[in-house]
Write a structure and sequence with these properties.
Layout (H helix, E strand, L loop, with lengths): L1 E4 L3 H14 L18 H8 L5 E2 L5 E4 L1
Length: 65
């Protein structure tokens, strides 16, 4: 299992700027809770799933099997 940044540098730059502006909260989410701080709970749960392969919600990270 490996987690890496999206290969599209433009997406990575946009999301990182959103994270900076939001104080580390996922820029793709309206709510500001501990579950939406990057790396969000949704993606942490997906990482824990051995069968999951794909991007996080905001497409910053990709989990490979």
């Amino acid at each position: 299992m490996k987690v890496r940044f999206n290969e599209n540098k433009e997406i990575v730059d946009i999301v990182k700027q959103g994270l900076k502006e939001s104080g580390g909260y996922c820029p793709c989410r309206r709510e500001r809770t501990p579950d939406t701080i990057c790396m969000c709970k949704e993606f942490r749960d997906q990482i824990a799933d051995p069968d999951y392969e794909g991007y996080c919600h905001c497409m910053l990270y990709y989990k490979e099997k």
